[in-house]
Input
Amino acid sequence: GVAEGVAEGVAEGVADASSAAAGGGGAFTRGEKEEAETRKLEAELRAELDKADELREELDELRRERLELEAEAADLDARESAYWDDFNDFKLALERHVDERDSLVVSVEQTGRQLERLRRTNVFNDTFHIWFDGPFGTVNGFRLGRLSNVAVEWDEINAAWGMACLLLSTMANAVKLEFSRYTLKPMGSFSKVVDAKGNAYELYGPVNILSSHKYDRAMAGFLQCLDEFGAFANEQDVSNGVNPPFELPYKIEGDKIDGRKIGFPFNRYERWTAALKIMLTDLKTCLAWLSNQQRG
Output
């Protein structure tokens, strides 16, 4: 293209020179004319060469720009590919997280239902079953007391006392109640009651004339602890605005419950057994109160 432009320029220059010579009426010599034409052609050639250089530089610049654009396009392609890789990884991680969350939600719901079942299950009611067997009060089936015509063995009576002692002591611990006058020492069939001076009284038999006063003191001490628990329950209900507040069904005064002395009678067991039966009724009522507190 550049060579053709130069040739065309030269031809036009020759034509213009011939026209000028013809028009000038031969004012210049032949040598002068040729020299003028040559200079003109050289100037035009230089101009065309300069233009070619400019076009070549412009072409090089366009090539550089194209290479830069190609590099940028490749970088964008790489970034897009990396973006989709990250997006897919995030999507998979999100799906796993959603699955784990759903699994955790199900687990929490199951745990909540199990906790609710446990809240409705009272360990005291399940462990200590207070009931009645004719004239006898019973703890987990062990009779407390005896009659003139029903000689309940001491092992059974001692076991019943041991369970009653353990129940009342555990209930007091559950509500953080410390008895003021006596301390219960649940030791199975060999439980004891200790007074404020540290004197221990056996809450188990067999009982004879020499040991009966200690047995009576142990039973009276148990009664006092039961009465203190009843008073504590009453105070809690009053402070919480419960109406009517808790009351023991059978009033305790010293070593008497509902006016019946709890001392060991020696061969006149009916009143003693009846007193022990209503004592267990008071204990069962306290247990019911505690169960309601834990359930609420």
Notes: The mean pLDDT is 87. Residues 30-120 form the longest helix (91 residues). The two ends are 102 Å apart (CA to CA). The chain is about 65% helix and 10% strand.
